[in-house]
Description:
7 strands, 5 helices, five-stranded mixed sheet, 32% helix, CATH 3.30.1330.40, disordered N terminus, 2 domains
Amino acid sequence: MIVFSLIIPDHSCLQRHLPDMLCSAPLRSASRNMCVATSLTSTRLAAVRKGACATQVRHIHVEKRMDEKGIVLPPAPKPAANYNITCRANGNMLYISGHLPLQNDGTLMTGCAGADGIDVDQGYAAARQCGLNIVATLKNHLGDLDRVKQVVKVFGIVNSATDFKLQHKIMDGCSDVIMDIFDKPVGYHARSAIGTNTLPLDTLVEVEAIVQIKED
């Protein structure tokens, strides 16, 4: 008589998955009364140990980095007109509508760079607020900022006078805060920055983004 023994950990979730992973085969031997062997491949056993009892875990690496840097997100903004704040396409690409520099107290940072007494530093602060609002939208949409796989593209529009030529310096406010939050390589993005003679609600800056997210 040939006997094969298999030691199985006493985990209820393993026992539930075991029937699908075990295979039985008869043994030809002189004694036909006891001829059952059970085999479990090392690959399947590893899968059981690794994933059979797995539960969804929420990662907090990004939010921990934010805490360490003292970055606090504002409330996630709502659409100001008839459009969706985000739109998901191609499975894992998230398109984020233009965000304005809406501050925590509900006031909007307005004005025209190069005029109205608005300089680069004020524009930088407005662009940074746009970036924070975008991340707040991501947090509200995804629940977990570690689901962001890559910030792909940021597009910024600066309300500026015709002779103002430093829109790219203003948009650093948005790029810098995104990098502070996500770091490289996740936060390192492509970018465009343009100037315009007016923006809705006289806002100083408007920023939209494209973000790749991890599969569900």
